[in-house]
Amino acid sequence: MEIGQKVKVYRLRDRVSPAIVNKLGKVGTIQGYRMTDGSGVGVVVQFEDNSATWFFEDELKPAQ
């Protein structure tokens, strides 16, 4: 996954807020990366409504 790539949120690993649950199925653009727990890397995704949050790579897939 690369910065600028369009991705779709297709699953969520953990319990999250309703605002993030609403991103399920949405397409956004990768803006950067984030260390998650010292060993993992998350992906920061920005959506059309200008909101941004991070996801694990296995929660995303390339947008068609």
From TrEMBL:
Q: Which domain of life is it from?
A: Bacteria
- Known InterPro entries for this protein? Tsr0524-like
| Name the UniProt record assigns to this protein | DUF2862 domain-containing protein
